[in-house]
Amino acid sequence: MGCCNEPAIALTGSAPDPARHVNYAKGMVLGVDDFTQEFTYLAGRGQWLARDAIGYGTLSGLAAFMEDGGADGPRLRVAPGSALVPSGKLVCVPADQCCLLNKWLAKPENAAAVTRLLLGGSPPMSPPMSPPMSPAPGTSGTISLYLTLCYADCLTAPVPIPGEPCRTDDQLTAPSRVADDFCLELRTEAPSHLEDDALRDFVRWLKANVQVVEPGSPPADELQWLAALRSAVQAWRNAMDASPPVSPPASIETLGDYLADLSTPLSVPIDQLRAFLQVAFRFWVTELRPMWMARRCHAPVDKDQDCVLLARVGVPVEWVGGSPSGVWQVDGDPDDVSLDESARPLIIHQRLLQEWMLLGGGGVGSVSGLPQGLSTGDAPTFAGLTLTSSMRLPLVTPGTNITLDASHHFVACTAPVSVTLPKCVAGNRGRVYNVRSSGGPSTLVATGGDTIVGGASVTTTNPKMVVSDGNNTWYVF
Prior knowledge:
alpha/beta; 24 strands
């Protein structure tokens, strides 16, 4: 039954409904409620489109840094940038924002929160202790604070308004504009990012539980694929369908995971990979995302959760002074304060994704990661899916000196030559080269200050496998 079957009600006195807009008719007298309703409808649709089609997270900027604040101690700085919060509202931070951690710790409400984190007593006692509980001098530890960005707005631009002649000064004007604003704060608990956490786990599950095998392998059908996908989330289905409802409600804390790993990986022939991914992504859109999405349609959103996490800040603190007159202070310098951004939700803009895909991205990696004879167009377009087959890897047989790159894998030297390894950096962590020399001793040479077997080079005739640690060292196996 649609809304047209509902009894007529007056708009005045009720909150604007983002699913309705004004039905303009000749002769209608428009009032404040009508204009407010029309704005709510238009703004609501923009937010709805953003959160359902794009998601939420950092769009640009908002880099977090620790720096020296001089006599004031370590300072946390956040660069300008923008983000989408779970409601679909855009948030812009137009200029650098700074927080002196010692001053933040000195505020009574923050000091009490730190005390609870380190010494227990959470939730706070009611009624509170008098005087408040204070640590002994020298008490120290490390606490986790969560750098959080939220949407806010404020009333501005007051203008005179008509009214009764005998009014107070605050009744002579009214704000004429509502300005977008932001709230950047340190919290003792992270905002809930259920949808983002579930999405990451879904991608991880596909990587860990799907093997792409050679064409011609026994085919599977859509029902088998769906059965495997649904079995991974059966615990959530059982908990959410239980009658009476389970207590406490289903959550990652009570169930331990979003999708349970399969006992045996799901094998998908490479020529059926496209069909499988269509099934998997449809399963996410139609069955999984509705269970975990941040906000469905125009359902209300908790204002305290309409935020995005920027970083977890690990702060070593020490109680300095007496009790209760002391204060918490950072125990160390800026380098002792850690910033963990691994849980920050990010939104990669479409232009970057387009360029990544045009250059053969999507997780297939470098040419050395593909079987010989398998073109980039034939390769999986989904990051991390394991291709199991009698694959043929690139082989080079140099008779002269050679510098290796991402296109090499097996190196069979036919003469004594110098084999120069690429710079060992984070981008090639785990890269493997298999080297042997059949025409006399050859030399493996590290570059740019890297080491191999503790030195700058090693001479060998026996087969050696070298692996990059991504941080200046080549390991030999």
